[in-house]
Amino acid sequence: MKKIFAVVALSALVASAAYAGSAARTGINGSMHDINMAAGYTDDALQRTCVFCHTPHNAQSTALAPLWNHAPSAQVLTAYSWASPANNSITFAPDPLVGPSRLCQACHDGLTAVDSHGTAASIPTGSTIMSSSYVDALGQTAKRYIDDLSVTHPIGFLYADAFTARGATELVPAATGFITEPSATLLAAGFNTNNRAALAKSTKTIADTLYGGFMTCASCHDVHNTVNAVPDAGHNYNYFLYAKEEGSAICLSCHVK
Question: The whole model's pTM is what?
């Protein structure tokens, strides 16, 4: 039986737990990125999970990913527009979908077939694009794809520029790991979120997730579902995040607020 499929987009940070998908850190098979488990999409005839993105032979010629096997996205998007003049010195890449963000959009653009891949062994592929919307637990309509970067967390900018522009009172150095401290600490009465020196952090740093210094989709999301954060007991979301939602650990891993 196929599971209800929920794709991970930046907007998933506020998506319904009903679209939580498989458990964090359980690998790619059966996860939200296993297209074979997706209702409404064409399975791979050999039930291969990796083939929707990667192939060991006859891959597409791209410098963006190893052995890429998915239909490319030709989407053109305008970068996020900073609200504060203090951010004007922050450099955006010519293509705001620099690096892995372009690869993410090969499914999350609402234009390119999610279930398309190379036709090794003459195996047919699908042509279904990401469904336009779903209804979350609050009865609100939410999109599963990205077609407007002005309403998502900014990507395609140099983190070092942002740190220089905003300073250590607003952002942490890129050498800082993601917060792994139990969320009870972050949620404790009287806890000061600015006092983060003693907080437990992962060995994976913000710098590790940047692409040539640029912030991308993969700066927050572990697409292979291997080292992402496990939610607190009683919560079943899995947005492939490097830190928990609880206590806003994912936000506070970069932002000093």
Answer: 0.88
Helix extents (H) in the chain: 100-108, 159-166, 183-187, 249-252
Residue 85 DSSP SS3: helix
DSSP reduced 3-state for 121? helix
Contact 240, 223 (CB under 8 A): yes
DSSP one-letter code for 189: T
d(CA 38, CA 30): 9
Burial letters for 134-143: b for 16+ Cβ neighbours within 10 Å, e otherwise? beeeeeeebb
Q: Give me the residue label for tokens 């003693």.
A: 198
172, 67, 152, 59: which is closest to 101 by C-alpha?
Answer: 152
3-state secondary structure at position 120: helix
What confidence tens digit (pLDDT) does each residue in 152-196 have? 999 999 999 999 999 999 999 999 999 999 999 999 999 998 888
Task: Reduce the DSSP state of residue 47 to 3 states and report it.
Answer: coil
Burial of 85 by CB count in 10 Å (0-12 exposed, 13-18 middle, 19+ buried)?
A: exposed
